[in-house]
Amino acid sequence: MCDFSIPFQTNPEALVERANKAITGMGGTFTGDTTAGTFHLSTPVGSISGSYTVTGQNLGMHIDEKPFFITCSQIEAQLKKALLGN
Known about the structure:
The protein is an alpha+beta fold. It is 31% helix and 42% strand. The protein has one domain: Kinase associated domain 1, KA1 (TATA-Binding Protein), CATH 3.30.310.80. The protein has two helices and five strands. A five-stranded antiparallel β-sheet has the order 1-5-4-3-2, covered by helices on one side. It is globular, with a radius of gyration of 12 Å. The chain starts with a strand and ends with a helix. The relative contact order is 0.25. The model has no long low-confidence stretch (mean pLDDT 93).
């Protein structure tokens, strides 16, 4: 459905921990480590779920499920904001 990558400068452990806290803090589920994992989040407008991989300083994202009216670029922008602060 959606595939994109997010380059990062921090160490992978810190990035994965930040992702875990962000998703579980919103009531979602997060499983994984510094190489790969999955996540699921229910929102008032529908569910968002997917998987990630970490390769070097690059976070690869694959979104499997999303509300039809939320674009991939909106999800990417929100993830960047939550994970990187931009």
